[in-house]
Amino acid sequence: MRLGIRIFLVYFLFVGLTGYFILSTVREQVRPGVRQSTEETLVDTANLLAEILRDEVKAGTLGQSRLPELLKAYGQRQPNAEIWGLAKTQVNHRIYVTDAKGVVLLDSSGEAVGQDYSRWNDVYLTLQGRYGARSTRSIADDPDSSVMHVAAPILDGGKIIGVVTVAKPNSSLQPYVDRSEKRLVNLGLGLIVLGLLLGAGLSWWLARSLRRLTHYAQAVSEGERVALPHYRGGELATLAGAVERMRTQLEGKAYVERYVHTLTHELKSPLAAIRGASELLQGPMPEEQRQRFASNIESESARMQQLIERLLHLAQVEQRHGLEDQRQVELAAMVDELLVAQTARIESAGLQVRQRVPAPVRLLCEPFLMRQAIANLLENALDFTPPGGLLVFELEQLEGRVALSLYNQGEAIPDYALGRLSERFYSLPRPGSGRKSTGLGLNFVEEVMQLHGGSLAVANVEDGVRVRLWLPVNRVS
Asked: Distance (Å, rounded) from C-alpha 290 to C-alpha 308?
């Protein structure tokens, strides 16, 4: 399935589900919202009537007043009003009044006069001084036949002498609910369709842009000369630039030639030494000289093997795009393990070693790579530390960053070499033997630190050199 189609389907699913849930929620709120608004109006009406009817109820003349006639005339009125596009042709309120015992004194429908309504919540609660309201079905099996009743107390000097109730059937509100729901559904569907059209356009544009970049990469891989697709900023422009830089680097023959030339140069010296020693060994010579030449062959072979192994390790790291086996390891235990492995060299040189990395500290890393990196640093430090010198491992925290620090006592690194220490094949002569290493150790360390999101820093300090492996704070706990 193409990327554009997948993006559109995900977008369609997201917009569809979001629209559905929003519309469902809004529709669920329309009906109670309309009824709540109507109930508020009924409350006002009931309290107004309570004040109007107070004197007649108090005097007991409600039945002889003009109110029954007025309520009958009210029920026969035809408003002929148009409310937001809906015609209203009849009034829907029912009004009834009870005395302090709940007996109906007046009913606009003429049905309940003389009946005891004290059991209904609107009358019952109001007579107790509480808010009285109820919703009752006119037809038991028909939920749409419910009628909303709201009551208000008729007061005389703070005493409840009666109750007036205003009732309105919910069916009279249904046209307004239906119209509101219909408009919301139409609007919601329109917005969803518009969103899907925009999503389809975005998916088409993104897929088209990626296809252009894909065609460019395929043409480059086949050796064709094509122009780089142009994008106006954003991630696609960054990606196009990265592809172009990759092309430039892959075509960098000068870089490859320099790499091969340097490697050939590094191998030439040990090969020449091995060849010379082997030629001399073919003739007669004292046993002492024979042993010395054999030892030279062995040491140069070991040097070549070390060079090849480190090149392989470096090549593997350079081809990595990320870490593969991340685990939490105890940093102090890893350092201790490497120090134990170098016990013979440390003791023979009489070195002083101080390990100050806190035991509880744990590091999230790829253990093999991190162990190799620290081992390279330790080997370099041992090479450049004079007999009886000092080595110090510690954990530093500076400006919100964390670093594993290794200090070794010894001569300062020349200024001309400080900026080149991590270059491939660059090395300084060892103080003891005057020989150089493969020049791959610090380059390997730098690559490992970049994979872990950190960096390598080497600096001269008082009486020695300090190397720091800067690590992201979230990797150290």
From this structure: 27
How far from chain centre, in Å, is Cα 365? 22
361 and 344 assigned to the same domain: yes
What CATH number is given to the structural domain containing 65? 3.30.450.20
Tell me which of 319, 334, 351 is where a domain ends.
Answer: 319
Q: pLDDT tens across 122-158, in order?
A: 999 999 999 999 988 878 787 777 888 999 999 988 8
Q: Are residues 267 and 398 in the same domain?
A: no
Mean pLDDT of the chain: 78
How many C-beta atoms surround the C-beta of residue 444 within 10 A? 24
Q: Does residue 469 share a domain with residue 433? A: yes
327 and 315 part of one domain: no
Residue 265: closest CA among 432, 420, 424: 424
Residue 309 and residue 373 in one domain: no
DSSP secondary structure letter of residue 476: B
Q: Is residue 205 part of a domain?
A: no
User: Residue 280 belongs to what domain range?
Assistant: 252-319
CATH of the domain at 470: 3.30.565.10
pLDDT at position 192 is 75
User: pTM of the full predicted structure?
Assistant: 0.42
pLDDT at 370: 85
How many domains does the structure of the chain reveal?
Answer: 3
Residue 231, token pair as written in the block: 């994008």
Residue 312 has pLDDT above 70, yes or no: no
* CA atoms of 249 and 241, how far apart (whole Å): 12
Same domain, 349 and 315: no
What is the total residue count of the chain?
477
Domain stops at, among 135, 161, 178? 178
Check residues 391 and 189 and name the one with the higher pLDDT. 391
Q: Which two tokens stand for residue 350?
A: 């009489």
| Nearest residue to 92 via CA among 36, 166, 156 | 166
Token readout for 423 is: 């270059």
**Cα–Cα distance measured from residue 292 to residue 287, given in angstroms and rounded to the nearest whole number:** 9
Is the pLDDT confidence value at 186 over 50? yes
Q: Residue 108's closest CA among 141, 75, 150?
A: 75
Q: 3-state SS of 85-103? A: CEEECCCCCEEEEEECCCE
Residues 6 or more apart whose Cβ sits within 8 Å of residue 188? 19, 22, 23, 26
Phi then psi for 238, rounded to 5 degrees? -65, -45
Task: Provide the 10 A C-beta neighbour count for residue 122.
Answer: 27
Same domain, 388 and 270: no
Residue 56, judged by CB atoms within 10 A of its CB (0-12, 13-18, 19+), counts as: buried
Q: Is 399 left (phi over 0), alpha (psi -120 to 50) or beta?
A: left
Residue 464 shares a structural domain with residue 324: yes
Q: 405 by DSSP, 3-state: which?
A: strand
